[in-house]
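Hi D.,

Good news: the full-assembly prediction came through. Inputs first.
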Amino acid sequence: MLTLHIKLVEAMLAQAQKDHPVETCGVIAGPIGSNLPQRLIPMQNVAQSEDFFQFDSLQHLKVWREMETRGEAPVVIYHSHTKTPAYPSKTDVKYAAEPKAHYVIISSNRLYGEEIRSFRIVDGIVIEERIKIVNTYQPNLEQLKVA
Amino acid sequence: MSVKVSIPTILRPLTNDQKQIEAVGINVLEVIDQMDQQYPGIKEKLIAKGKPHRFINIYVNDNDIRFSDGLTTNLKDGDSLTILPAVAGG
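Then the structure:
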């Protein structure tokens, strides 16, 4: 199961709508081992495509280094589908390289409403998991940072 | 030239779970060849037919080698080489 703060869900949906018909993408960092997404970082889709996304390589390095310095991991990796349902495509499965991440997919196509779903993708196997949307995390945790 | 190489999570099973390893070489290709002797199998995860895989990013310090000399990018003592699988999909 993936627990997601409502503000993060709203930020991802808004970003997907803003970038439509191009696929949007990004990452939500959280403390290593916490499994708690906190810091949302929208990423540049260098493909600028309706059916493909790829993080800009220099931004990717910068953001991954920042996470390392801060003791964070990429808890969520998200992107949108502009024409199809929010389910991993063949290419999503092929290039999934973060076995510990939750792969969140948002459909920005009106046909599917504001669909948002989460998956684990490990060694080519896709397992859907429930998303629990909450209004607050535990009070002792750091505040959210939505860019 | 001795350089530090950062290994991404997905390749750590090949490096006995080490996040960072030391390797020697005058350019990126030599370093990868040397790593492959120590940790067999790593080269084929990075290179095919003499070129880096399209969805593997290799950086020397802060620079993506695609924007310099690719696998023949020269290295200096103390440089860092970072490998990151591209985050991509459809």
